[in-house]
Every structure is written in structure tokens, then in C-alpha cells.
């Protein structure tokens, strides 16, 4: 909702960053407006398990995450996702070659990311045991970081999820799938911030 919009519907009116209805606060921009929006891109074309999807959704439930994209390996997995999460506001995309290099799933998923998000959280389905606090730490750090890519680190070992600014999507899409993430992270070290977390589950 744009603060400049004159509200004439259902007796709504705006005053000092608050929307009122029947003289009661209906919407508070200071509390409800998001400075940063995140998309969660989950790669599950290999070793798909619906129970792991459920755990991922439980961990990654934050107000800042407004867009969810899941890459699966076939129609059966897609149908199961849609049936299981009818109310869930997400997108399920099929990688027609699930056994191809992992980067192919990333490029397919990025095409479905909302243009309205500021950051993309890249998560692997196999890492479904990470702590919710870890995700919270990464989200809060991403909001203030001057770097374009954030990587969690546990005892000097890098893990996932990786968070990157959405303006890097064209760069991700331009890379040949044979190069993938290792090439990107190696050649753009100056753009990376490592975030120390107390969570060994980012590694496995």
C-alpha cells in the first residue's frame, strides 16, 4: 500500500503513517512496512522429501520472507507440493533434468523469483536441520551489510544458506552451469561477507 494513495474505500483514511478504519488503527506503516524483502529459493530436485520441505518452511517463516520458490524434479513432486500446501503462497518449478549439475536448478529457480524482493536466500533441501536463530541472524545481517553476498561460517567452514542481493540475479544467470557457485564465490571474494554462526547444521 502506497502512503501517497488517498484512501476512499471502506471508510479508510490515513493520518501520520497510520491507516484508520472506524476510528481504530487498521494498518501501521511504521510497524508493518518492510524495508527489505527476501525470497527463499529451495533446491529439491534431487532426493525430494515432503517432510523435509515442511521443516524448511517451519524454519524459514519470517515476515521478511515474502516469496517462496521450490525447484523439484518431476510432476509427481510438484503435484504433491501443491496438494500439501494449497494455502501456501509459493511457486513450484520443475527441473526437467534433475540429475544435471546443481547450478541448473539454481538458474531455473531464479527465473521465478519475484522482482519485488531485495535478497535471495539459497537453501538446499538436505540442510533442513539448521536453527531458526541462524536464519534470523543472517537476515538481520543482510539488511545492514555493505556486501552483496553473505555466507554462514561455523568454525571456519562455510555452509548454507547463502544470501545474495537480487541485483546479482543477472550475474548468476550469465554463468555457464558448468562453472556454478564455486566459480562465482572464488572470483567475487570482495563481494562476500562471512557471518560466524553457532550452528554446525549449516554444513550438513
Total domains, how many? 2
- The sequence of SSEs as H and E is EEEHEHEHEHEHEEEHHE
Helix content: 25-40%
What is the CATH level 1 assignment of the largest domain? Alpha Beta
- CATH-derived topology of the largest domain: Spore Coat Polysaccharide Biosynthesis Protein SpsA, Chain A
* Distance linking N and C termini: 41 Å
Q: For the record, what is the CATH homologous superfamily label of the largest domain?
A: Spore Coat Polysaccharide Biosynthesis Protein SpsA, Chain A
The main sheet comes to: 8 strands, mixed
State the shape: globular
Quote the average pLDDT: 86
Task: Please report the total strand number as a whole number.
Answer: 11
CATH architecture of the largest domain: Alpha-Beta Complex
Strand content: 25-35%
Provide the structure class. Answer: alpha/beta
What gyration radius follows from the Cα positions, in whole Å? Answer: 19 Å
Poorly predicted regions: 1-8
| Annotation field: number of helices | 7
Amino acid at each position: 500500500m502506497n502512503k501517497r494513495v488517498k484512501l476512499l474505500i471502506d471508510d479508510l483514511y490515513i493520518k501520520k503513517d497510520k491507516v484508520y478504519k472506524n476510528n481504530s488503527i487498521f494498518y501501521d506503516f511504521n510497524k508493518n512496512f518492510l524495508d527489505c524483502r527476501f525470497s527463499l529459493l529451495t533446491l529439491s530436485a534431487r532426493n525430494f522429501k515432503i517432510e523435509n520441505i515442511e521443516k524448511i518452511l517451519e524454519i524459514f517463516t519470517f515476515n521478511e520472507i515474502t516469496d517462496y520458490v521450490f525447484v523439484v524434479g518431476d510432476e509427481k513432486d510438484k503435484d504433491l507440493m501443491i496438494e500439501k500446501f494449497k494455502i501456501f503462497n509459493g511457486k513450484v518449478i520443475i527441473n526437467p533434468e534433475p540429475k544435471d549439475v546443481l547450478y541448473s536448478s539454481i538458474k531455473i529457480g531464479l527465473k521465478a523469483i519475484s522482482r519485488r524482493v531485495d535478497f535471495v536466500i539459497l537453501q538446499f533441501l538436505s540442510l533442513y536441520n539448521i536453527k531458526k536463530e541462524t536464519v534470523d541472524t543472517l537476515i538481520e545481517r543482510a539488511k545492514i551489510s555493505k556486501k552483496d553476498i553473505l555466507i554462514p561460517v561455523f568454525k571456519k567452514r562455510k555452509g548454507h544458506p547463502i544470501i545474495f542481493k537480487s541485483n546479482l540475479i543477472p550475474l548468476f544467470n550469465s554463468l555457464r552451469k558448468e562453472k556454478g557457485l564455486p566459480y562465482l564465490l572464488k572470483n567475487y571474494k570482495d563481494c562476500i561477507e562471512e557471518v560466524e554462526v553457532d550452528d554446525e547444521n549449516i554444513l550438513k
